[in-house]
Design brief:
The chain contains 2 helices and 19 strands. It is mainly beta. Strand 7 and strand 8 form a beta hairpin.
Length: about 280
């Protein structure tokens, strides 16, 4: 049965790096990010609601600063896309929905990664959640790319690893880490496109995460007591890795329940990170 409602199987997501902020290259060769689990495009006009005496109702509704957000969750293969959280280069990201009867194309321009979360659990795939802020979004009925390249492999949990210093940890069941750039939308007073942000600068960066262990050792408790600093290295598939330096545990806990094995949860913070 055919329907005019679009399904997730009719959606695609691709990106291209911008040379000039907010401008999509002409006839670009578009790239996939990996196996996309979900995508959440959103645009908020930040409507300004104007009231005045003489009426109980609004007198005007004016558009304010357009806020463009895009949340992508995917299984990565390689670090090409997630590395943009480090380089902070701007991207044009195309989300389109395609039927034989037509295409709805959402082109997000001037996107930078505000927050990136990488997670891995036993019996699961490595998963990335990228939260982006854009300058603008345009809506069309045709795709904008010259070519489209997909990346269809993924990283299984046994293709990842966790190292503390030079030691590979053999009792980890889950890990995640977060890189937050704290981007700020900066508009200026101008007559041309005044409703769009002009700059999207990064501010203080926050590096954090959590490692969950099978409780077999008191090592993490000792680290807290002794105020120990260390590095953590997370395998991202193949030879790719994320290395967090000058780490300390924020908290160590061992929730203990009837008829269950004990797990040790250890959130951490870090001073620096390198992805390669």
């Amino acid at each position: 049965m055919s329907t005019s409602v679009y399904g997730a199987h009719e959606a695609k997501l691709y990106y291209i790096e911008e040379t000039t902020y907010g401008e999509t290259p002409a006839l670009p060769d578009m790239h996939g990010v990996g196996s996309v689990i979900s995508v959440d495009p959103a645009v908020n006009p930040s409507n300004v609601k104007v009231r005045g005496i003489g009426s109980r109702d609004l007198q005007f509704i004016k558009k304010g600063l357009r806020q463009v957000n895009l949340r992508i969750q995917y299984n990565p293969y390689g670090i090409t896309f997630l590395d943009y959280v480090m380089t902070l280069k701007s991207l044009s990201i195309e989300v389109y929905y395609e039927k034989t009867t037509g295409i709805i194309d959402l082109l997000h321009k001037g996107c930078r990664i505000d927050r990136l979360t990488v997670e891995c659990s036993v019996e699961d795939l490595l998963k990335v959640t990228a939260e982006l802020i854009g300058q603008n979004v345009t809506v069309g009925t045709a795709k904008i790319g010259n070519t489209y390249t997909d990346h269809e492999a993924a990283v299984l949990f046994y293709e990842s690893y966790v190292k503390k210093g030079v030691t590979t940890l053999e009792r980890v069941t889950d890990f995640k880490f977060v890189i937050a750039n704290n981007l700020k939308r900066v508009p200026v007073i101008r007559s041309t496109n005044g409703y769009l942000l002009k700059y999207l600068p990064e501010r203080h960066r926050m590096l954090s995460g959590e490692v969950t262990f099978d409780f077999e050792s008191k090592e993490e408790f000792d680290d807290i007591i002794n105020d120990t600093e260390f590095s953590l290295e997370f395998g991202l598939g193949s030879t790719n890795k994320a290395v967090f330096s000058n780490c300390k545990w924020e908290n160590v806990s061992t929730p203990t329940r009837i008829e269950d094995l004990v797990a040790l949860k250890a959130p951490f913070i870090a001073k620096t990170v390198a992805i390669s």
